Amino acid sequence: MRKLGFTLLAVIGFTGMSFAQGLTNTAQVVAESALMLSKETGEYSFVFPENTTLEMVIKNAKNYKDMFSVEFNETTHEVKMSLVENTPMNRKIMTRMMISCGVQYVRVNGKDIELRAFSQAYL
């Protein structure tokens, strides 16, 4: 009985940790239609997780200044990326910036999509 209690406690703990981690590693977009427009214009907007800091964004953005510029709103955690040249390669490199800021998923229309699959489908 005691073993069952510990097993149940472990399962609940891991489930809670997985849920909490999902809240801290998921960026969001307004809508799928906005992504389609962004692909044409080279102007992307994401809401990064609340644990994203200005220092983190500045530190990571400087590595990609030849590919895109980055703006960060500390209050809303909105990150705007503007491609210098709107090419498929530069769009895919944006995911490196997102990874370096701790993003692993992007929420599109309420569905969390792993960053690699997001890149293939939307960038």
Key terms:
123 residues, alpha+beta, three-stranded antiparallel sheet, 5 helices, 6 strands, globular
Radius of gyration from the alpha-carbon trace, in angstroms = 17 Å
Detail the poorly predicted runs: 4-22
Tell me about the biggest sheet?
A: 3 strands, mixed
Strand content: 15-25%
Strands across the major sheet, in which order?
A: 1-5-6
Going by helix content, strand content and strand pairing, the class is alpha+beta
**Averaged pLDDT:** 85
Helical stretch tally:
5
Distance linking N and C termini: 52 Å
SSE pattern, N- to C-terminal: HEHEHEEHEEH
Oligomer state equals: single chain
The number of domains is: 1
Instruction: Give the beta-strand count.
Output: 6
Approximate helicity band: 40-55%
Identify the overall geometry.
globular
